[in-house]
Write a structure and sequence with these properties.
With 578 residues, this protein is an alpha/beta fold. It is built from 12 helices and 26 strands. The termini are close together.
């Protein structure tokens, strides 16, 4: 027998029906999804602002445990990466008398590291958290100047049992870009290259091991962009035996250099599935190495966009982005931010008051979607794009060029960049400049074409199935910011026989099931529960469940459920398949 319940992210003219076909016999990727896929990345000087000065901040620990509890049994919990730009400006100082070199803007001491340990071993023990510790590579190519002392102190503080990885520096691929920029730390000079980095990396690895770092404890990479991606095989070949994991950084949009991110641009396909090309390329080109993570990322780099990153817009974006990311083979993502700033999923005031932001609701819902070591399965949506069009570049390969999203022919292999005119199809099919000049819209034609800005399908669907708990979960998203109608009925048909009564769980920006509010910062609830006003990181209110009924198709191959999906909302259909 199949039973089901719906997890609705809600936020009355109605759209025509949309059908989603879910094939539980068609897995998308082989590896199970980690229950600890969602983690957090915190700048060094903000770490104790999240964990507490003594590692005793219960509200943060409980919010991590809420994620952990979505999967049953013992498993790894959320990872906390302590690093970012500040890592290359932070120096471990054992005593106040210790002379430190110029360039240290923040000092780490043993008391702080003991607070990390106290948080992991005691305060957040029930969440089974781990750390990735970023160390200073930027101050000096000599690891003994400040970095080795930091690594040795991890041993003294007893942090190795709680440390999944150690990073060596942050975003070294843009060191050269900062050499002549006022206000930026001058970590190297304007001629700094990957070859320089590779030579400097070796003594750090060797001296870290000598200082007590266990084997296979490096988290490699941490590059800001894709310009050094072609060197990743070389780096893994040389140091893969020491690497537990490899980190890429990925932000969907940017507010750097005074750019503005709109709600529509974050909700667009280009900010979710459209971001996966470079990530998939790295994973496919390094198939022998399996542990790729997004060690730092969020909705928009350089702090996020107020009114976008801190609203319900980020909830909807995160659900789509994380689903697309996981399908590429990425093992987890650390969301950067905290204890303040627009893109922080969890924020704390100076007096320690917690503010659970809309992004956290998306992370929590995704963790339920992928709980209990689920696998992705096929979910096909009957969206009505014009015949011959390809607005999401599903039949091509995508790249971005000067703010425009370009769809090249699939035969190109890669879209744009150096040597594009030499790829199969030539310049007209493979080069961003040529495609932009032709100005053919993907809303009307297939590749090569220019993708329509801010395009998103009426309904987006992702589905998982878990043999551990016997459930199939189907996530439905209605992300169109200016949809004409308030709601639509989505018919979700899952392989299997007719279901008995099912249940509906809700998460909403209102209590009436109306069109969602993309600008909402508070007032959300998840299955009848909210984090508004929480002081301890626990949800308030009782979990609410309502019935829904499935119907068998005449040929007996599927069970279909009608799900009402308001605009600017999401819903999760949960079907018991045994």
């Amino acid at each position: 027998m199949i039973s089901a319940f719906v997890l609705v992210l809600c936020v009355t003219q109605t759209f025509a029906d949309v059908t989603v076909s879910v094939d539980t016999n068609a897995p998308i990727s082989g590896a199970p999804i980690s229950p600890s896929f969602v983690g957090f990345s915190i700048e060094v000087m903000g770490a104790l602002g999240m964990m507490g000065e003594d590692g005793d901040r219960v509200a943060f620990a409980n919010l991590l445990e809420e994620l952990y509890k979505k999967s049953s049994g013992a498993h790894a919990g959320p990872n906390l990466r302590i690093g970012g730009n500040s890592a290359d400006e932070s120096c471990f100082r054992k005593t106040l008398r210790q002379k430190m070199p110029d360039g240290c803007s923040f000092f780490i001491n043993e008391t702080q590291l003991l607070a990390y340990k106290r948080f992991a071993s005691s305060t957040a023990h029930a969440a089974n958290v781990s750390f990735v510790i970023d160390t200073n590579f930027g101050l000096s190519p000599d690891p003994s100047v400040v970095a080795v002392g930091h690594v040795a102190a991890l041993d003294t503080a007893g942090l190795w049992p709680y440390t999944r990885g150690v990073e060596i520096g942050n975003e070294m691929d843009i060191y050269a870009d900062h050499a002549n920029v006022p206000g930026k730390p001058h970590h190297r000079n304007a001629s700094y290259t990957y070859n320089d980095y590779f030579v400097e990396y070796a003594p750090f690895v060797r001296q870290y091991r000598d200082a007590g770092m266990p084997g296979r404890r490096l988290q490699g990479g941490t590059f800001a962009g894709s310009s050094w991606n072609k060197y990743i095989p070389d780096l893994i070949l040389a140091y893969g035996a020491e690497m537990a994991t490899y980190s890429m950084h990925k932000y969907a949009r940017t507010t750097c250099n005074d750019r503005t991110v709109t709600q529509a641009s974050l909700l667009a396909y280009a900010a979710a599935g459209g971001q996966m090309g470079p990530v998939a390329e790295v994973i496919n080109n390094n198939s022998g190495f399996k542990e790729f993570y997004i060690g730092e990322g969020n909705s928009a780099s350089c702090g996020g966009q107020e009114g976008v990153s801190d609203t319900f817009t980020a909830t909807l974006w995160s659900l789509d982005f994380l689903s697309a990311l996981s399908k590429t083979g990425v093992r987890g993502m650390n969301f950067h931010g905290g204890p303040a700033g627009p893109y922080s999923a969890i924020a704390f005031s100076a007096n320690g008051t917690v503010d659970v932001r809309p992004l956290y609701y998306g992370l929590l819902a995704f963790t339920e979607l992928t709980c209990n070591h689920s696998h992705w399965v096929s979910a096909t949506v009957s969206n009505s794009a014009p015949a011959g069009s390809d607005p999401t570049c599903a039949t091509g390969t995508m790249a971005s060029s000067h703010g425009d999203d370009i769809c090249c022919n699939a035969s190109c292999g890669a879209c744009g960049g150096t040597g594009c005119n030499d790829r199969p199809g030539g310049s007209d099919s493979c080069c961003a400049g040529s495609i932009l000049s032709a100005n053919v819209s993907c809303a009307e034609h297939g590749p090569p074409c220019v993708m329509p800005p801010d395009y998103v399908d009426d309904v987006v669907a992702h589905a998982t199935t878990s043999t551990a708990d016997g459930y199939t979960r189907v996530l439905l998203l209605a992300k169109q910011l200016h949809a004409v109608a308030d709601t639509r009925t989505v018919k979700v048909c899952v392989t299997g026989k007719i279901a008995a009564a099912a249940r509906v769980l809700s998460i909403a920006t209102s209590t009436t099931g109306a069109r969602g509010d993309a600008s909402a910062k508070h007032g959300l609830n998840f299955a009848g529960q909210t984090f508004d006003g929480t002081t301890d990181g626990r949800p308030r209110g009782a979990r609410v469940e309502s019935p829904v009924t499935g119907h068998q198709t005449p040929d007996g191959t599927h069970t279909c459920y009608d799900v009402t999906l308001p605009s600017l909302s999401a819903a999760m259909l949960i079907v018991a398949t045994n």
